[in-house]
Amino acid sequence: GVTHPCTIIKTAVDKKNKKIYLDEVFYETGRSTNEIYNSIKTEVGSGLIVMDNAAPLFILDLQKSGLKVIPCYKEKIVDRIRKVQDYEIIVTARSKQLMEELDNYAWLDTSKTRSEREVPIDKYNHAIDASLGYAVTFLTQQSSSIY
Question: CB atoms < 10 A from the CB of 10, how many?
Answer without folding.
Answer: 18
